[in-house]
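Figure 2 data, in text form.
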Amino acid sequence: MLIESYREITGIQLFDTNYSDEYLSCLLYHAPFVVVSHGIEADPVFNYGNLTAQQLWHIDWEQFTTMPSRLSAEPERAEDRQRLLDEAATHGFISNYTGIRISSKGQRFKIEQVLLWNLKNNSGEKIGQAALFRNWTNVK
């Protein structure tokens, strides 16, 4: 779903589509860029974070997929993060977002050129949001 919805939003294939779904899932999980998604709960929880995301936030799969997505940013940046999510919810996606996030070890990092988009099921109902970014820099 993440790979197909990314193609629908951008018109770009992340990977060769001749591969099986299982192999595509493996490629996405081990990709050298960050891909994350969360649901539509009142306090959305991450339901996907590829290995690069887990390493960036210094947590494993189980911790990542039980973490409220708001905890990926510092509390004082919550308003900025919420504005980003709201804009994507309204317009379907946003691109070229830049912001500061924080790992579970307190390491702050700047994310750049982020694409955030709405995830929809086969009926067209919004079921969450996903983000992909390739650029980040540690900050103090």
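Caption note: The mean pLDDT is 91.
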